[in-house]
Design a protein that fits this description.
The protein has about 350 residues and is α/β, with parallel strands linked by helices. The protein contains eleven helices and 17 strands. Strand 2, helix 3 and strand 3 form a beta-alpha-beta unit. The two termini are about 20 Å apart. The structure holds pyridoxal-5'-phosphate.
Length: about 350
């Protein structure tokens, strides 16, 4: 199951979804119903699961469009059944069980009753059941993960015994897909790893995975500033001597965080960002002049140097999904193999 929520983490849901389906994914998942609508409007007919909550009109649309919804409570079961009866059709669902995330779903001991309720209410086709891991990205064999796997397996056993085991049972995200065979069950839900980002924090980059994304800009201007010259808001940086300072058309309005310690690649070398990052621009220190238009790499490889999203996790104190999802839509996305993605 290819997870293309949040516009495929900013990379374009229809393009990434088509590429994933071409490469062998069977199903897609998104967070909001509006994101499923975007996929259907793009002509994508593959199964799409919506992880999040839906409004009654969205349930009607999901029934009409054949979009699969998450059934996470007894209330949603009643709502879905009622809308399905009104439409005279079935609503396709995956049950959500909370095995230890504290976010959405019924508790493990309630699943049997929920499955029975779906059966009794009618109008609901239970195609799957799933849960989400809280610690898979942190450590491969965390006690909490083992406990979640055990609880999920227990739920599946009792559903099996009651003759209510749905076709698709799924628990693992990217981290589990790569590092935790016991959490794979019938299907894995892969998001960040689809984009070649490292699935876990403490383990090395998996050999099967390839980094595919880069974020590039061009030098807008490069000037020699005199000694004692303040750079950007607040003059947090002041030139010590005569210095080459390049201005880049990249700011926090593009998703480049206004935090200290930023670096970019220019001429295959790391160049430090100096002064505060502005909304639309930032400045970097260079050892020598470079022409306007020189390629700048914010994420990715240039020559033998590389700035990875793993590095930015530490600098920006956030997740890779957050880093790339926050790259503003005004930054054009360019796909390098359009025969697969377009
Ligand atoms: C976002 C999400 C995923 C994908 O997570 P990755 O770590 O990006 O692979 C899987 N399942 C659920 C429920 C999610 O919300």
């Amino acid at each position: 199951m290819a997870v293309v929520k949040s516009n495929a983490y900013g990379f374009g849901a229809p393009q990434i979804a088509r590429t994933a389906l071409y490469a062998g994914a069977d199903q897609l998942a998104v967070a909001r119903f509006s994101e499923a609508r975007v996929l259907r409007e793009a002509g994508i007919t593959a199964p799409v699961l919506v992880f999040g909550m839906v409004t009654p009109p969205e349930v009607d649309e999901a029934i009409a469009q054949g979009v699969t919804l998450t059934l996470h409570s007894f209330e949603t079961a009643e709502l879905f059944a009622q809308r399905a009866h009104t439409a005279g059709k079935q609503v396709r669902v995956h049950l959500k069980v909370d095995t230890g995330f504290g976010r959405l779903g019924v508790l493990p001991e309630e699943v049997i009753d929920l499955a029975r309720a779906c059966h009794a209410l009618g109008g609901i086709t239970v195609e799957g059941i799933y849960s989400h891991l809280a610690m898979a990205d942190e450590a491969p064999d965390h006690l909490v993960t083992r406990q979640q796997i055990e609880r999920f397996s227990g739920v599946l056993d009792s559903l099996q015994a009651a003759g209510l085991r749905p076709r698709w049972a799924h628990l693992g995200n990217s981290a589990a897909a790569f590092g935790l065979p016991a959490a794979r069950f019938d299907m894995v839900r892969v998001g960040t790893a689809l984009l070649g980002m490292k699935p876990f924090y403490f383990q090395p980059f998996p050999a099967e995975l390839q980094r595919v994304i880069s974020w590039k800009a061009q030098v807008a201007s490069c000037r020699q500033l005199p000694a004692g010259w303040g750079v950007s808001y607040g003059h947090e940086y002041v030139t010590a001597g005569s210095e080459w300072i390049a201005t880049l058309p990249v700011g926090y309005g593009d998703g480049f965080r206004r935090l200290p310690g930023n670096q970019v690649l220019i001429d295959g070398q790391r160049a430090p960002v100096v002064g505060r990052v502005c909304n639309d621009m930032c400045m970097v220190w260079l050892p020598h002049a470079v022409p306007a238009g020189t390629e700048v790499v914010l994420i990715g490889r240039q020559g033998s140097e590389e700035i990875t999203t793993d590095e930015l996790i530490d600098r920006w104190h956030t997740s890779q999904a957050d880093i790339v999802s926050s790259i503003n839509p005004r930054v054009p996305r360019v796909y390098s193999s359009m025969e697969r993605s377009g």
